[in-house]
Write a structure and sequence with these properties.
The structure is a single chain. 41% of the residues lie in helices and 30% in strands. It is an alpha/beta fold. A hairpin with a 5-residue loop joins strand 3 (60-70) and strand 4.
């Protein structure tokens, strides 16, 4: 439970940072790095752990394979950022680690300036994961640093509100500032 609190506090810190400096990063991948940096700066998430086979790793991983979700080309999709509980990571062998065969307790999908279809795909992927793993904590962070039509904002809010199993943060450019809606 302590890891969950740290993860959620880091997400709030990240989104508030986006509010203050929406153009600090030009592309989504840079934002992934920023969130990874914030997460790994937390004492509870910064330690190294041994896999069951003895190799050293950490709790936070970028592009962890989703063990269930298969994209249109027949390959597994990846989760933007995944965080494991220490006891889980210590129970993974090297082969399963390399293949990404273990499902993390915390999964985060993050997007910047993507369309509604992208958000719906992220929601679908996380819901499929949650259908088979109800103990996973799923998060979506959907960001716009560009002006959006009111109907887009309304649709994003509806998609996020219609999926209460997924905690979310939605930030967009208002008239003069970044507006944040979140349930984290």
């Amino acid at each position: 439970m302590k890891i969950k609190k740290v993860v959620e506090e880091a997400i709030v810190e990240f989104v508030e940072g986006f509010r203050e400096h929406p153009f600090l990063h030009r592309v989504e991948h840079s934002l992934h790095c920023e969130l990874f940096k914030i997460l790994s700066s937390k004492e509870e998430l910064s330690k190294h752990y041994s896999l069951s086979s003895g190799q050293t790793t950490q709790l936070i991983h970028k592009e962890w394979p989703n063990a269930l979700y298969v994209v249109g080309n027949g390959r597994r999709g990846n989760i933007d950022i995944s965080i494991f509980e220490p006891s889980t990571i210590e129970g993974i062998g090297l082969d399963d680690f390399k293949l990404g065969n273990k499902i993390p307790e915390y999964v985060i999908e993050l997007s910047l300036n993507y369309d509604i279809d992208h958000l719906e795909n992220d929601v679908r992927e996380l819901n499929e994961l949650l259908d088979n793993n109800p103990n996973v904590n799923a998060y979506i962070i959907h960001l716009y640093n560009t002006k959006k039509q009111n109907n887009t904002i309304t649709r994003v809010r509806a998609i996020l509100n219609d999926n209460p199993r997924i905690k979310s943060a939605f930030a967009y450019l208002g008239d003069n500032n970044i507006i944040i809606d979140r349930n984290i």
